[in-house]
Amino acid sequence: MNEAIKQAEKEFLEYVKKMGAYNEALSIMFWDLRTGAPKQGVEQRSEVIGMLSSEVFKMSTSEEMAAYIANLTTAEAKSELSEITLKTVEECKKEYDRNKKIPADEYKDYVILQSKAESIWEEAKDKSDFELFRPYLEKLVETNKRFLEYWGYEGNKYNTLLDMYEPGVTVEVLDKVFGELREKIVPLVQAISESPNKPETAFLFENFSKDKQRAFSLEILKQMGYNFDAGRLDETVHPFAIGINPGDVRVTTNYDENDFRTAVFGTIHEGGHALYEQNISSELIGTPLCSGTSMGIHESQSLFFENFVGRNYSFWKKNYALLKEYASGQFDHVALEDFYRAINESKPSLIRIEADELTYPLHVIIRYEIEKGLFNDEIEVKDLPQVWNKKYEEYLGVIPPNDAKGVLQDVHWSGGSFGYFPSYALGYMYAAQLKNALLKEIPNYDELLESGNIDPIKEWFTKNVHQYGKMKKPLEILTDVTGEGLNAKYLVEYLYEKYGKVYQLNL
Amino acid sequence: MNEAIKQAEKEFLEYVKKMGAYNEALSIMFWDLRTGAPKQGVEQRSEVIGMLSSEVFKMSTSEEMAAYIANLTTAEAKSELSEITLKTVEECKKEYDRNKKIPADEYKDYVILQSKAESIWEEAKDKSDFELFRPYLEKLVETNKRFLEYWGYEGNKYNTLLDMYEPGVTVEVLDKVFGELREKIVPLVQAISESPNKPETAFLFENFSKDKQRAFSLEILKQMGYNFDAGRLDETVHPFAIGINPGDVRVTTNYDENDFRTAVFGTIHEGGHALYEQNISSELIGTPLCSGTSMGIHESQSLFFENFVGRNYSFWKKNYALLKEYASGQFDHVALEDFYRAINESKPSLIRIEADELTYPLHVIIRYEIEKGLFNDEIEVKDLPQVWNKKYEEYLGVIPPNDAKGVLQDVHWSGGSFGYFPSYALGYMYAAQLKNALLKEIPNYDELLESGNIDPIKEWFTKNVHQYGKMKKPLEILTDVTGEGLNAKYLVEYLYEKYGKVYQLNL
């Protein structure tokens, strides 16, 4: 290999490793803040986090970084460097370009705006007062529109925003798959609401002690193949999974002593995220490739485990007796079949994060349509509450009684995260498509769940998804595994089959 | 103020703050590693810690730092800068000088040697084989002797090593006070061993559940004035306190279900360290002055609370009933007086960290005498086991059956920490001297303990010790508070009075 390139590669990888080290320290501090850091230390900790983050930002946009990118993207370099190095350069270049295109003072103003907007949003949500938040949201949208001009775009303007979370996914693709999904889910929701065969659910809400819920959750994590030598389970208000490095991927959950589902399905969901991060190839440690490839693929892993494993009948055939052991009698007179129907209850609701798996995609689609409208000048911020409520009525048949339960419910926009929401529904579609591919190789899927042998399923995901980290783009993973692009059909089929049975519908 | 100086000060303080931020991140990672970090993440975490540490080291010895020191130590600067800035510069200069005087390649070799020596020491201790460790210890001593030549010294060579942990304390001082201490303690230990009035202790070793021990320990921490909004209590094999910043000072303890003293006195000890760190003036946050001024003064705080509070009769007059509530009956038929005598049992033993408060200083003095001999070429490493055992026999009347329980017992030397041990006994002497001063202002000391009102005692320490951080040197604190230098008399008096009573001696 050309000596100059070899030397540049060596230095570049060291440089990137240092950025990774700072990010690892930041992750630990993030986890610590959420799992019990003393409150009087928080202010100083925030300063420390700010200082380290800005160091990482500086490194990602430094002249040194520019030189590495220039030297390692020549034709000669491309022909000589390893794939890992090339992808690492690509990743760094993407971030460099994105950050460098924004004039420094505009970026600084934006960071200040974000932080103000988040605290105003909190207040506005508390008071259910959209007008309070409106000027900030207008400014956030306006600034992002200006940034879009700096960044440039192909086709629809909104594509550039989508690309940040789901590289390669465009409005053209989403219009098609979300359109199909909406068209099929809306009538199913309608049919369910008219069905006389609704599940009994009262028994779900009896007291189930936190300790016992935790013990049961740990059993399930173990069954999923979560590696406790490379992780731990803690308690937080808002559950999350965090990959600090593949040998340290932590999960948190939240306990509701009157609704065990919060902790159990929450843990399974976060456990799905964690399996992804635990099984990334160790070759990628120290590079920016050592994490999930996109929000959507990440969500495909959590939703797969939460719904296709955790809400599967065979899974409970194996685990219902165990659940009964940990609970204090609430399921003693409930047949497995009735339990299964209860945890798969579906009904339209106002709040996205509390939605069931059938209605959830509709919440996401509403947000997608609104964001697309905002960035194509078809919707104005001032009209949002009205637009929001109208869509909820149309798609879900419910009308928010106020903005706190409507347009103000999510934190995302206050932080300037536009283009993020679609990933939630994409994850779901990816999961259904991946499952279809998995069944070809593992036709005895239900049997495995019934015997508590989830390992072959986890291994399949590691082989096809986890190990690659960011070495493959999301759509690359999808087509490599399934042989086709995004397709709503699989999710629709799954939902029709499942809910048709749960509600005994004539479809 | 001179504009150039003003500007240099501003930049210097920013620079130092950044070093502080890295150190805060390192502290969190250190704490995390010891309180449950998943083991498969440890290797990568160590790399991250190494990278951040070396960044801090580079910053402390950089040309930038050299320029700050030069610009901020001119006569003009000294007359214009605040005391905090001046002390910060002084602290940075001390470290700069120390680190810069060692040739870079020698320092690097030394770091490698330390890490090898630590792992060999562990093996040697396991096998109780001093010969295995000997070549490493010889090299460590040799290297430190060479470093001493680079650093220079005044009077005794060993003074430079002492100065790292206890600035201002010299061999001349230690010979005097340790000599006096030894001379007085040895006959007291002898008298006790011959006393027929030994306390009954069997009841100490009954089962006391971990949860209950923890609950009781939390009560005591609260009574001490430990601020739980600025701290937390966790469990580790080796207890410690860590000041991450004054708003985040964490304590850990270890539970022995058959000996509650481990957790209770351990927690009080670490709590004493924590009170120090929690009450450093917030003005010092972000500077290297924001921590305890020396190992010895730190130990004075932990030992004060452990022994002068936690092993005080009045303290248990208040808390014995509470302890009984948490215990499962083991003290039900034990009178307070007998309990008090039991927790103050003294008898010569082999292991320093398990020693009682009377014999403890002798363990330290032995190590001091050995280190002084090593660095003044009066003792050779190869003779250490023999020298060690002889001194144990002479001072404590016990002979180690093997090197694991003798010369290999402490980790310190394997890490190249020479000059550290004396701080343990100094802390004890400081504590006794400070208590004497405290009694002049708070003569109703015992009454306060008896009523559970420890606050005025804590406040006194905050006013006289805690708040200053490193703004005052250890001996400066001592003389400012007591009006005199180190004096063994107060500790001797305390020990004679206390143990005279516990063992009903005719002294």
Automatic annotation (TrEMBL), chains A, B:
<keyword id="KW-0645">Protease</keyword>
<keyword id="KW-0121">Carboxypeptidase</keyword>
<dbReference type="GO" id="GO:0004180">
    <property type="term" value="F:carboxypeptidase activity"/>
</dbReference>
<keyword id="KW-0479">Metal-binding</keyword>
<keyword id="KW-0482">Metalloprotease</keyword>
<dbReference type="Pfam" id="PF02074">
    <property type="entry name" value="Peptidase_M32"/>
</dbReference>
<keyword id="KW-0378">Hydrolase</keyword>
<comment type="similarity">
    <text>Belongs to the peptidase M32 family.</text>
</comment>
<dbReference type="InterPro" id="IPR001333">
    <property type="entry name" value="Peptidase_M32_Taq"/>
</dbReference>
<comment type="function">
    <text>Broad specificity carboxypetidase that releases amino acids sequentially from the C-terminus, including neutral, aromatic, polar and basic residues.</text>
</comment>
<protein>
    <recommendedName>
        <fullName>Metal-dependent carboxypeptidase</fullName>
        <ecNumber>3.4.17.19</ecNumber>
    </recommendedName>
</protein>
